[in-house]
# Entry
Amino acid sequence: MKINRNGTDHLDGQISVVTGAGRGIGAAIAGRLASMGATVVLCGRTLKSLQDTASDISNLGGRAEAISCDVSELESVQAMAAKVEQTFGRIDILVNNAGVGGFAAPLHEMTPEAWEKVLNTNLRGVFYCIRSFAPLMIRRGGGHIVNISSLAGKNPLPNGAAYAASKWGLNGLSYSVAEELRTHSIRVSVVCPGSVDTNLMTWPTLWRC
# Structure
């Protein structure tokens, strides 16, 4: 199946990186970017799911490459950024989508280890990715960073305080970094989805969303 060119594919030639792209929202975002003409670098901890996403994109006529990466580890993110630069020489779009939940109990019952896991992935991971990719965008003369937050970054979330804290923090990070990178022609956007039941979606549907 070929991509249906309908006049909206204005990303031809651009290189995009999507974290947490093996399933759910990340896979949908990757599919949409590919349908608009971008080459998509799929990043996540589980290589098999990334390869499945890449295969789905390729079968629909898009271009995708899978790279295993744990955004909570700086060395892993730096290695991914180095590979992207070596392979493509540029990055135009960075989508920081990787995230984990944490809704099992009130905060006073949460273990420090669980807290660290949520904050390290949802907030520290975005810091690592921007730290690693923004210099490449600056050298290229511009780009677009999209941070996937949540309505939990705007509203109270009982039994999910760590998750809410990570998303409130991500919103503040996004607004501040937008001001820092504005002079480098880099746009920073933050998107705050509500609950998404991605299991109801199939790949052809995601592709056209």
In short: The two ends are 17 Å apart (CA to CA). The CA atoms of residues 28 and 101 lie 19 Å apart.
